[in-house]
Structure to design on (367 residues):
């Protein structure tokens, strides 16, 4: 599905910056058994637990894309109660069954080394999807949105939203990050801080709590209850007589948890960012409660991974592959990657941004 890039001049400039240093060099075809990916072959897709709307959508998108491409889809979700061991077992089962390719959305990308090593030994092609698998050379390709740029867009949205509310600073803000077992969480945060740190240093932004490093602001499990609890503690300790102007939230689920804490504290809504364009957050954006989100079309991302499979099956090097050490160095290698472009969405451009998604478009128009 062709993505509509709907961003302002600032975001366009950030895109150019994010791509600086990325190499479009061709990457040799994988050493896996590409010739064995015949039509009708089984392609394994190992996804984490259904902790967000996008993970739920991913399963259906993979099933549809793989079926249309002529493959059999073996889509598995990690159990919520036993997430990492459950996913490890599922991947091992895919190896045993002889799946020709295994596409992995890692529950914890640092704990799959043994499983992907076994896959490679069996001649199976391994594609990391949405999240990088770390500390192993046994990953052939990585398909994801440019996650560093996601953070840049979120930070710029926060600055733009603050300025729209009050012409000049200083602005009181707090920072939230995702789960430390998700390799993307630190990348989102680093991208955001590349934009925010200069403004913190020059006094435009003030992090009242002083909590500015990733380990101080992460949110275990991406659980909204954890974000809500931390927000409640911050509001109680630092904002009894101080206004909270803005919050860097890494996704929509956490943003809603933070907003719940703000409402319970009787505080005005801050400018708050998000990600994933969840259906529950679109109305909040349209009414002005949440300032922004990021649109990453799950169907586009799944289709991009399936396209890699098709090209490998045809004996071709996947098109559009880059070697990007900024975000795709997994500790053992820079994994050849297909990077897709995220879209910043605010109330101003929501209808246009979601023109290729009838459900989200309808919610934006309703708002």
């Amino acid at each position: 599905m062709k993505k509509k890039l709907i961003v302002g001049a600032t975001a366009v400039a950030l895109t150019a910056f994010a791509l600086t240093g990325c190499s479009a060099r061709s990457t040799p075809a994988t050493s896996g058994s590409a010739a064995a990916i015949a039509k009708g072959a089984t392609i394994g897709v190992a996804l984490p637990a259904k902790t967000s709307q996008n993970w739920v959508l991913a399963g259906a998108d993979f099933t549809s894309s793989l079926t249309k491409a002529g493959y059999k889809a073996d889509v598995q979700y990690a159990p919520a109660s036993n997430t990492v061991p459950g996913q490890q077992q599922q991947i091992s089962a895919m190896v045993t069954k002889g799946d020709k390719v295994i596409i992995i959305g890692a529950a914890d990308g640092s704990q799959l080394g043994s499983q992907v090593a076994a896959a490679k030994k069996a001649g199976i092609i391994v594609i990391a999807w949405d999240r990088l698998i770390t500390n192993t050379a046994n990953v052939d390709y990585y398909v994801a949105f440019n996650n560093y740029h996601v953070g840049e867009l979120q930070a710029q949205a926060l600055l733009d939203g603050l300025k729209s509310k009050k012409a000049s600073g200083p602005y009181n803000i707090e920072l939230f990050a995702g789960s430390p077992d998700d390799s993307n969480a630190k990348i989102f945060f680093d991208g955001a801080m590349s934009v925010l740190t200069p403004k913190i240093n020059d006094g435009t932004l003030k992090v009242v709590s002083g909590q500015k490093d990733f380990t101080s602001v992460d949110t275990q499990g991406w659980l909204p209850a954890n974000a809500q609890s931390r927000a409640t503690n911050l509001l109680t300790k630092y904002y009894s007589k101080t206004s909270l102007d803005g919050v860097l939230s890494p996704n929509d689920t956490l943003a809603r948890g933070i907003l719940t804490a703000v409402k319970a504290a009787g505080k005005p809504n801050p400018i708050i960012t998000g990600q994933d364009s969840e259906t529950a957050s679109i109305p909040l954006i349209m009414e002005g409660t949440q300032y922004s989100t990021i649109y990453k079309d799950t169907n586009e991302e799944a289709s991009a991974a399936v396209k890699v499979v098709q090209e490998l099956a045809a004996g071709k090097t996947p098109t559009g592959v880059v070697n990007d050490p900024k975000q795709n160095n997994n500790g053992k290698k820079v994994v050849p990657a297909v990077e897709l472009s995220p879209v910043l969405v605010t109330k101003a451009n929501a209808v246009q941004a979601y023109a290729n998604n009838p459900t989200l478009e309808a919610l934006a128009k309703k708002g």
